[in-house]
Design brief:
Length: about 400
């Protein structure tokens, strides 16, 4: 039986399908939080995501969320790059949307955004949250121009852009432009419990890195900064937590630079216990959107050194001058040195002020309400486009 969609322009309860590829990382966390908040607000929510990625952590997280998913969970093959299998997966998305009577198809990331906007067979509005994705992929290259051309085509099938940062919204305006659509900047949100201060372990690492092990995260520059600090007599211990395509290359670089006794690697895991194991977090990224790892660290009052890229200045707000330039080992070393040498009381006060600022600006409740506001505006805009007004003609009619 195929469910009948609401007249969602007037409805207080939407039927929402979130579509994304990999159940890992910050994008996954965003969708999980948003789906949970929407379900708690009384909306019917479902998820469509990749069946080949996520591992045990992704499986557990989806299983925990499943009781809240009135529209269920569908896992289908979604390859990272364009593939012939996309046609079958697109048909599956369209069938699912029709089956559950979706009012909203909300795509996340490049692949999820493409599926949500190209799927046929449903009258649902199409919303898109990029999460950086193709907008950040090697600007200036032929491949980036190809991706932006695809985004321009897909923009014509988009009812609402729900950008996660001012930065990505600006990239869209610069690289894609095109006809105006409903647009909202909806920052990632945090729960109240995430603002509880950390209880540091007895013998913490000096430095932490948490995230993907890949080129775009700027990790070679962090290793070079470690070498500089070692030459000053600061033999700092670094814990790197994560996985990714450049894992083996990074391990080789650690050995080549003689850092084997200073750098430890561990697989992905819950972030708060990791933060408690280090004196500071280092985020040497070359490109970002609005990274959860920075939000979570700031919320927990964890000292950190981060680059001035993507939406990170939006997180730091008035403290954005504390950020450092990317691709600069000397700047990373200087930032680490500053935190290590800062008076504990001054450092604590600085991080407490930043945490309070983030708490005021990045809440789950605000994230949820602004997304629903975006949906409502998209329905209203669609209604306005479908309404054709016939102007009255003044004066007497003539035969």
């Amino acid at each position: 039986m195929v469910a009948k969609p609401n007249d969602a322009r007037a409805a207080e309860r939407y039927r929402i399908l979130h579509v994304f590829r990999a159940p890992v990382g910050g994008l996954f966390r965003h969708v999980m939080d948003l789906a949970r908040v929407q379900a708690e607000a009384g909306h019917a929510v479902g998820i469509i995501c990749d069946s080949m990625t996520g591992g045990e952590r992704g499986e557990r997280a989806l299983a925990d969320l499943l009781p809240s998913l009135e529209l269920g969970l569908l896992r289908i093959p979604m390859r990272r790059n364009p593939d012939r299998s996309d046609w079958g997966s697109l048909r599956a998305v369209g069938r699912r949307a029709a089956l559950v009577g979706a009012d909203v198809l909300h795509g996340h990331g490049a692949k999820g955004g493409a599926y949500a906007r190209l799927a046929r067979g449903s009258a649902a509005i199409r919303c898109y949250t990029p999460h950086g994705g193709s907008y950040n992929y090697r600007p200036g290259t032929a491949l980036h121009r190809l991706y932006m051309g695809a985004e321009a085509v897909l923009a014509r099938r988009t009812d609402a852009f729900l950008f996660e940062s001012e930065y990505v919204a600006g990239r869209h305006r610069s690289f894609v432009g095109g006809p105006e659509r409903v647009t909202r900047i909806v920052h990632n949100g945090l729960a109240d419990a995430e603002f509880a201060p950390l209880e540091r372990v007895a013998d913490p690492f000096d430095l932490l890195y948490v995230g993907e092990l890949r080129e775009a995260k700027g990790l070679p520059y962090l290793l070079e900064a470690l070498v500089r600090l070692r030459s000053e007599g600061r033999a700092l211990r670094l814990l790197m937590v994560g996985s990714g395509p450049d894992s083996e290359i990074l391990r080789e670089n650690v050995d080549r630079l003689g850092l084997g006794g200073m750098v430890s690697f561990e697989p992905p895991q819950a972030i708060r216990p990791v933060l408690a194991r280090g004196r500071m977090l280092v985020v040497p990224s070359l490109a970002e959107s609005l990274p959860y790892v920075v939000l979570e660290a700031v919320a927990a009052r964890q000292p950190l050194v981060a680059t001035r890229v993507g939406g990170i200045p939006e997180i730091f707000g008035q403290a954005a001058d504390d950020l450092i330039p990317a691709r600069d080992p000397a700047a990373i070393a200087s930032g680490i040195r500053r935190v290590l040498d800062e008076a504990p009381a001054a450092l604590e006060a600085r991080m407490q002020a930043l945490s309070a600022s983030v708490r005021q600006r990045f809440s789950l409740e605000r994230m949820g309400s602004e997304v629903i506001s975006g949906y409502a505006a998209a329905f209203q805009a669609g209604s306005d486009r479908r309404t054709v007004k016939v102007p009255e003609i003044a004066g007497p009619r003539t035969a």
